[in-house]
């Protein structure tokens, strides 16, 4: 069974750019709901196995979150969408909390991350501009990600709802939640304002760690 991870900082740590109340609701209610509903879906799968559901599904119960999403098409069709939505929601949010931090940190892209952004997007400023436009352009609820593709290159990708890059063999390096619950209390319908503010709380050290880990995975 999966559990809700604690935030790596106080609920108020991202003020004034992301407010404490939003963080409490986003983490304690939304992320918690994905964890709860994922566990319920896995219980249904376990019950199905006891009722003679094909034994080939049994190893899926022992997968970690990342492997579960990578193997989503192996789950029985009757539970696949439910597991995809909730495992994706849990994975995306667990990732999201880590790539944010105090706006007082003052860090900027450096090392291999800086080199990769300059190589792929010409400059950090151009990267931020393209990423921002990608996030603004998400229709309805979803995410924008910087991903590492299986061929080792970096790219920007929009995902609807809680679909995870991991489902397509991609590794998330940076991502922003543009579901309305991520920003509506403070920014109402001003998604662009939220995205511009969010750049102030990006934890670039964690993003660099994500890239280094992704580059070492192949």
TrEMBL record:
The keyword Oxidoreductase applies. It catalyses: 2 superoxide + 2 H(+) = H2O2 + O2. Keywords: Metal-binding, Oxidoreductase. Mn(2+) binds at residues 26, 93, 177, 181. GO terms for cellular component: cytoplasm. Residues 2-100 form the Manganese/iron superoxide dismutase N-terminal domain. GO terms for molecular function: metal ion binding; superoxide dismutase activity. PROSITE patterns: SOD_MN. Its EC number is 1.15.1.1. Residues 109-209 form the Manganese/iron superoxide dismutase C-terminal domain. Belongs to the iron/manganese superoxide dismutase family. Destroys radicals which are normally produced within the cells and which are toxic to biological systems. This is Superoxide dismutase.
């Amino acid at each position: 069974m999966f559990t809700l991870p604690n935030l790596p900082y106080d609920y108020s740590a991202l003020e004034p750019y992301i407010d404490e109340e939003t963080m409490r609701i986003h983490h304690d209610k939304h992320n918690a709901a994905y964890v709860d509903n994922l566990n319920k879906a896995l219980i249904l799968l376990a019950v199905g196995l006891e009722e003679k559901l094909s034994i080939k599904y049994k190893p899926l119960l022992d997968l970690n979150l990342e492997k579960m999403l990578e193997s989503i098409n192996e789950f029985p069709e009757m539970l696949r969408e439910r597991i995809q939505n909730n495992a994706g929601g849990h994975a995306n949010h667990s990732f999201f909390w880590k790539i944010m931090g105090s706006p007082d940190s003052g860090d900027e892209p450096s090392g291999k991350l800086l080199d990769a952004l300059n190589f792929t997007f010409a400059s950090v400023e151009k990267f931020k501009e393209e990423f921002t436009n990608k996030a603004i352009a998400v229709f309805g609820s979803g995410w924008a990600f910087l991903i590492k593709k299986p061929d080792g290159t970096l790219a920007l990708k929009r995902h609807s709802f809680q679909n995870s890059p991991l489902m397509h063999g991609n590794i998330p390096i940076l991502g922003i939640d543009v579901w309305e619950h991520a920003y509506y209390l403070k920014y109402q319908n001003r998604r662009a304002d939220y995205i511009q503010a969010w750049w102030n709380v990006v934890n670039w050290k964690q993003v660099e760690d994500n890239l280094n880990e992704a580059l070492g995975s192949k």
